[in-house]
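CHAIN AND CONFORMATION:
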Amino acid sequence: MYEAFIDLDELIVRCRDKLAKKLIQEAVACYRCGAYRSCIVATWNAVVFDFLHKLRELEVSGNKEATTILENFEQISSQEKFKELWQFESDIPEIALKKFELISPVEKSDIERLFKDRSRCAHPSMTSLEEPFEATAELARYHLRSAIMHSLQRPPVQGRSALKRIWQEIKSEYFPKDSESATQFFQKSLLASARPALIKDVVIGLTVNLLTEEHLEDERLRQFSALNAIAKMYHSQVKEILEKHLSNIILDKVTDSNWDKVIIYLGTVQIWDTLSEPCQLKAVAFIDKLKIFDRSRKNNSICQKDVNVLLKAARLGFLKESVNNKLQLPLKEMLLLKDCCRNQLKDSSIDGLIKPLLEEKIPQANFDELLSMYLDEDSLLNEKIKPYLEEKIAEPSLENLIGLLEENLEKDKFLEELIERSLQAKINEASLDKLLEARQLVSWYPLKHKTRFEDLIQTALIKYVQDIVDRFRQSSSYRNAENNAEPLVYVFDYLSDTQWETILEEFWNNNQIYRANNCPITFSLLFKKSVALNGSVQPYWLPFRKKLNKYCDNLKLNFPDDAPSSSEELNSLINSHCLEKQ
């Protein structure tokens, strides 16, 4: 009994019109105290006032038919034409169905029976004196429920008008794109307490549209949010609709070119339970033909549209095996796919699909591939990757190791220590050419830890000091001389006086050196460092200075109008320090 009362209270809350709700409260009170005839009469009165309230709402929205009916009612009411008023009430079910589609034919029969039973309850002359009409609790409750469910809880627009307005709302660019907000929207709209026929029309309409029509992504998002919102509000009804119609819609209306829409629909609208076997077979065949990579192009680019479809398919139980087969890719392509899904498609669901496949390929992966997997920060997978990283750390070049260490310093202790050990080993074993290439790389790139790398390489260059000097002496072209002069700066601190004398003497003995424009620039730097280190001009610079003075005098004599050359600037620098000493 208590549950019945609670149910009646819930029915009261569903009433939209305040006056109709008050009459229903009166009807429920009558029901609870056993006055079943009064309950039925009050229920009918609530239906009448609710109908008049709906007519006023329709009048405000510009419905001329509603205005005409209201004017007629007000006229016969003011003139107290009771026969016409009775006729008006008896016509309410017919008008509600035929003129405004507020109720369905079945609901019309229930409302007509309520009117008939109300008349029996209110007018004893309509029943036999020997067999008076008995209103039972079951009958009163039936009429209460029918009145509220068929009429009092619903907005004034149903049928085709309601369907048109709902479509207009969904098409608006301001309609919510997430199902939670769409649910809140619909709970205050025409879909609140909607008739089953309206729910069916909207669900099937949205389904057909999403499966067969081309729309911009924003509009498709609005349609999906609308469909999922309706499914949340009317779960059992929508599930039943899709169980009955979805497979047929797919088979009858979807062309081969639109099968991607089917997979996206099935992966986005999850209320459906079963799909016919022909539909499932076609879905499997479609997935088998998807192209994840466009292998006709040199860069083997990812087909993002097909990948997006594949991610949706992965949510469907009957397609999981097909999806897994499509993901049997080379490791490099798996990593590219994972990166694309995360960064471009903004979908990380690929992680769960691809992780077991990546784990299988760890032993065969090269260092770069292992590093790419490791940097995903999957702790369980990383523990399995570490031994292979340690094994294959020798693969990267010296230059690559510098870049890797720069990227991972202070980020991952394991990687930092591993790369630094390997880098130090490679530096110790590197040839002079390799060291100079690495040193030049460090100079060119804006590394945060440049000094650290320079120190590592400089230490290794110490054993090649004499080789650097010899290379400089043997310079065979201007460009070669400029390249060979630069390493002298790297090993400046380790040059002996004898080596300095050789370098400065060879500067003038080799015309490929002293005529190379950048060599005097490098020697300006060497001179500054020498003075800074020793506090004065060293003796081996003095013979160099004499030859430089003579060379610059000849330049001025032969090219008096030219701007000062790099040699003349070097000459001025050395002379200024020598004059200061004097």
